[in-house]
């Protein structure tokens, strides 16, 4: 057990009322830390600190901001093993996955640091010989970031990097299930010499207090949120009061389309990697796996082989908590009761913690609960199809629109299907989903705004129109 505090204005703070909350290890259920319960008072102090730091941070030359961000990235990478161990203890994913996530988070910071030099304005033709027009990029101001528990470091740096690159300061609320990773990121940034107040961390078990405080404060000009669609809708409604900028990355229900000309074994290997990564607890995780009838048997056999090679507790961690486990069980039980078959897995493990084995279901239909709700667990439902138009329509039959996966050797089909799919991101034949240089985000009920690449920085900028008369 250890104590953890809030980072505000470059120093560490406890709740004035002495409040704390407990963080537990999902693999054992045992408590591992007591954390300061920030609430409204510490949130206000953090906004004060971010607002005070904003003028100095935005005034720094791009190269100076970039150098500080590179130093922070290097410090984060140097601490990858220790922060990874912290992440594993509070989130449950295997240590190798945790360490890789910290290093990926550092890569996102490096990319954002380089984008600092490419925040360009624009010269526009004037209205006449005595007129000059420019567009001047300016940071939006203080940003509130709200991050989820499933990727507790990379979700921070994907928001923090572009915001800092644009010249904004940040107040972060990490998920109450995984605050220790965020606090460790704050320690790394402080050690790297980031100016006080530029990055603030407010852990709390009362997310509504944080949200209400930042949404009511006119100094907070943008909120970047990753989490549930329900909370995202709440923030969208609340943003109307001060007309705040929002980026919201919400739920997903990713389809996979495996066509008959694809290599079914290669497709199964890639689907297994993305499906069982982080025990299926990712918004980009495949949720509906549509396989052409001609290759369904080969694909399913290869997927089952991959699933059965995974050892829970070694290659795959537990689900985050008992509620997540109950949802997975409910989805599987509904599918089995409606006629699906569990080729492997299909029942929770008889051991401490919230472990559920990699599971492959066949005989799945679109009307089953698992095809209508996001499972967020290691369940791979396989559905068969025969026609291209039909499977695209089935894939699009969801209110979500984050990620879709396509497997085909036909270039014309690649373009035809990718254009027809109603998702913000489409990857073909195993292309990566979220490298630092690419904009990450969805459409429909999966939200709006982008993280990563040049578009990610643009979300933290306003463009001021400047028109000058030469007065001849």
TrEMBL record:
Instruction: Tell me which domain of life the UniProt entry assigns to the organism this sequence originates from.
Output: Bacteria
Q: Which CDD domains match?
A: ALDH_F5_SSADH_GabD
* Annotated coiled-coil segments of the chain: none
Q: Which UniProt keywords apply?
A: Oxidoreductase
Q: Does the keyword Hydrolase apply?
A: no
UniProt keyword annotation of Cytoplasm present: no
Question: Which SUPFAM superfamilies does this chain map to?
Answer: ALDH-like
- Domain named Aldehyde dehydrogenase is located at 18-465
Question: What is this protein's name?
Answer: NAD-dependent succinate-semialdehyde dehydrogenase
Organism of provenance = Nonomuraea salmonea
């Amino acid at each position: 057990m250890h104590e953890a505090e809030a980072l505000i204005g470059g120093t560490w703070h406890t709740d004035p009322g002495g409040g704390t909350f407990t963080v537990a290890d999902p693999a054992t259920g045992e408590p591992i830390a007591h954390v300061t319960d920030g609430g409204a008072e510490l949130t206000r102090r953090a906004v004060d600190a971010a607002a005070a730091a904003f003028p100095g941070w935005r005034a720094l030359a791009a190269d100076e901001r970039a150098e500080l961000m590179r130093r922070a990235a290097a410090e984060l990478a140097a601490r990858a093993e220790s922060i990874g161990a912290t992440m594993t203890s509070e989130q449950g994913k295997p240590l190798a996955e945790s360490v890789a996530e910290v290093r990926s988070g550092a890569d996102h910071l490096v990319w954002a640091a380089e984008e600092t030099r490419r925040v360009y304005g624009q010269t526009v033709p004037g209205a006449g010989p005595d007129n000059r027009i420019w567009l001047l990029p300016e940071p939006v101001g203080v940003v509130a970031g709200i991050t989820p528990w499933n990727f507790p470091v990379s979700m921070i740096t994907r928001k923090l990097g572009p915001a800092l690159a644009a010249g904004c300061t940040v107040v972060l609320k990490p998920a109450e299930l995984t605050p220790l990773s965020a606090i460790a990121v704050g320690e790394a940034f402080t050690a790297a010499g980031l100016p006080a107040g530029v990055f603030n961390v407010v852990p709390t078990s009362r997310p509504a207090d944080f949200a209400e405080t930042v949404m009511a404060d006119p100094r907070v000009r943008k909120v970047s949120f990753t989490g549930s669609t329900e909370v995202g809708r709440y923030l969208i409604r609340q943003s109307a009061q001060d007309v705040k900028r929002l980026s919201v990355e919400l739920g997903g229900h990713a389809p996979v389309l495996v066509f008959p000309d694809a290599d079914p074994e290669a497709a199964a290997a890639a689907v297994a990697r993305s499906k069982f990564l982080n025990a299926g607890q990712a918004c980009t995780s495949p949720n509906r796996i549509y396989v052409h009838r001609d290759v369904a048997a080969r694909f399913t056999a290869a997927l089952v082989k991959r699933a059965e090679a995974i050892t829970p507790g070694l290659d795959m961690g537990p689900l985050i908590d008992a509620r997540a486990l109950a949802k997975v069980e409910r989805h599987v039980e509904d599918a089995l009761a409606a006629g699906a078959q569990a080729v492997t897995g299909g029942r929770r493990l008889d051991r401490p913690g919230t472990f559920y084995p990699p599971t492959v279901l066949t005989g799945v239909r679109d009307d089953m609960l698992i095809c209508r709700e996001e499972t967020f667990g290691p369940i791979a439902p396989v559905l068969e199809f025969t026609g291209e138009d039909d499977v695209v329509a089935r894939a699009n039959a969801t209110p979500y629109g984050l990620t879709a996966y396509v497997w085909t050797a036909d270039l014309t089909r690649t373009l035809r299907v990718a254009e027809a799919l109603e998702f913000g991101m489409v990857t073909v034949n195993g292309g990566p989903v979220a490298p630092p240089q690419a904009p990450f985000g969805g459409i429909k009920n999966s939200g709006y705004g982008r993280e990563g690449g040049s578009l990610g920085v643009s979300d933290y900028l306003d463009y001021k129109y400047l028109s000058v008369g030469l007065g001849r």
